[in-house]
């Protein structure tokens, strides 16, 4: 999508982090925004940061709720007439081993991170297909090609998002809809602060501190990279130097590198 000016973009997880920065930078490019999040206050804060002239609609949507996502898609069409881009960005994490985690916490992550993306994709797809040019941007992660210990549902869900994205690329080959699979490394956002913690390796405060130290990319930079990938119709996008390095290590040492990470971080509290 070479020119974003005047395009209608539906974006989830717009109340914080990468989503908020995407909203601001897309607005600066002249996009019309349909913003969704579960966090009403955060969403209002995002809107305050947009250029005044931005045409915006805000929707409180739990992306894990299929009916709510489909109702949002209907609202977006009713309000803006059409949609050109959907960015399925909302996400959450957890910090607990597969052995210890409850099904409630596992499903909480999986339902938001995978089903949220699936619902957002399917609800908007018929509308996107009717446009001369349209894009689906689904945010996976480096965890979508490499799992980290004590992050089981997130690893599984992000791998599933990658699989969904590649399937969509195959199936939508001869249509006007481009699909981009985004794989960020560590981005300095609230993702760990908003995670559910059980018997993970670290206490929450310690984990947040460590993450803030190692997350090498700002959400502003991540958003800029994602928008540049969108403009170039990229299929697979790594965000951050750490993501690029990890991609190489995983290709060179598929099992050996995983074993090493397990030795360093795999133990339980
Ligand atoms: N921060 C990182 O290091 C990193 C790395 C790789 C991938 N990602 C992915 O990037 C995306 C954005 O995350 P972020 O880092 O900006 O985190 P963040 O916590 O700052 O923002 C996530 C947003 O999603 C919203 N959200 C959570 N549950 C929701 C639900 N059920 N329905 C609707 N909205 C909901 C939150 O309210 C929040 O506004 C996520 O998919 C995340 O998995 C992040």
Structure, explained:
By secondary structure, the protein is α/β, with parallel strands linked by helices. It has a single domain (8-265), classed as 3-Layer(aba) Sandwich (Rossmann fold). The protein is 48% helix and 16% strand. It is built from nine helices and nine strands. It is globular, with a radius of gyration of 18 Å. The N and C termini lie far apart (47 Å). The relative contact order is 0.14. The model has no long low-confidence stretch (mean pLDDT 96). Nicotinamide-adenine-dinucleotide is lined by residues 12-13, 15-19, 37-39, 42, 61-64, 89-92, 112, 139, 141, 184, 186-187, 189-191, 194, 215, 219.
Helices and strands in order, then pairings?
Elements: E1 8-12, H1 17-28, E2 32-37, H2 40-48, E3 56-60, H3 66-80, E4 85-88, E5 94-95, H4 103-129, E6 134-139, H5 152-171, E7 177-184, E8 196-197, H6 204-214, H7 219-231, E9 236-239, H8 241-252, H9 256-265
Parallel strand pairs: 1-2, 1-4, 2-3, 4-6, 5-8, 6-7, 7-9
Helix pairs in contact: 1-7, 3-4, 4-5
Bound molecules: nicotinamide-adenine-dinucleotide (NAD).
The site of nicotinamide-adenine-dinucleotide (NAD) has 31 residues, from helix 1.
């Amino acid at each position: 999508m070479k020119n974003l000016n005047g395009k209608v973009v539906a974006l989830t997880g717009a109340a914080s982090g990468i989503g908020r920065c995407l909203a601001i930078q897309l607005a600066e490019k002249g996009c019309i925004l349909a913003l969704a999040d579960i966090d009403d206050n955060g969403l209002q804060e995002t809107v305050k940061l947009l250029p005044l002239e931005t045409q915006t609609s805000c929707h409180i949507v739990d992306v894990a709720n299929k009916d709510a996502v489909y109702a949002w898609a209907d609202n977006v069409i009713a309000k803006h007439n059409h949609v050109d881009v959907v960015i399925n960005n909302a996400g959450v994490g957890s910090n607990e081993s597969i052995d210890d985690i409850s099904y409630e916490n596992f499903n909480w992550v999986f339902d938001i991170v995978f089903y949220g993306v699936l619902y957002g994709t399917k609800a908007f797809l018929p509308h996107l297909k009717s446009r001369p040019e349209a894009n689906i941007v689904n945010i996976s992660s480096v965890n979508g090609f490499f799992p980290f210990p004590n992050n089981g549902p997130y690893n599984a869900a992000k791998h599933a998002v990658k699989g969904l994205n590649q399937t969509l690329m195959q199936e939508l080959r001869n249509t006007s809809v481009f699909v981009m699979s985004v794989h960020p490394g560590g981005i300095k956002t609230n993702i760990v602060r908003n995670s559910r913690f059980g018997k993970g390796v670290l206490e929450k405060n310690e984990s947040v501190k460590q993450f803030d130290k190692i997350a090498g990319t700002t959400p502003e930079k991540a958003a800029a990279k994602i928008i540049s990938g969108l403009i170039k119709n990229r299929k697979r996008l790594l965000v951050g130097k750490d993501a690029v390095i990890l991609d190489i290590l995983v290709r060179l040492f598929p099992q050996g590198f995983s074993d090493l990470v397990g030795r360093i971080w795999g133990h339980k509290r």
